[in-house]
Amino acid sequence: MGTKKLHPSVEKFKAFTKTHPLILKEVRGGKKSLQDFFEEWYILGEDDPVWEKYAAEGSETKEKTGGRSSWLNQLGAMLENLDPAQVQGHLQHLTEAITAVQNVITQFTGGQTPQSQAPQPKGPFSFRKD
């Protein structure tokens, strides 16, 4: 079976709808038919201000899906607002809490650390002499 080649104006309209995703959203919602949009596009042209509202949401969805860069921007703004002295204080409190937990564990284990029976080799490789 051979595939039919679309008319050049239909191919242009197809490319236009990819840059204006709200058109297809309204068609799927049943508000307007694709034929109606095509006729308006054919008469008004691509540069008519009518089409701005159909492209606006498309750029918003790109920002939402490309959230990685916006997330990094938010992180950068948050880091700019941090007070180094306050961060240092929080780290000091965290260190003290970890030390206290280590002391409690040492008390419960009787101050003994588990020791292995075999001596540890001095170098990175364990060789025996023949």
TrEMBL record:
It comes from the Bacteria. This is YlbD family protein. Residues 109-119 have a biased composition (Polar residues). It holds the Pfam family YlbD_coat. It comes from Heyndrickxia faecalis. InterPro entries: YlbD_coat (IPR025953). Residues 109-130 are annotated as: Disordered.
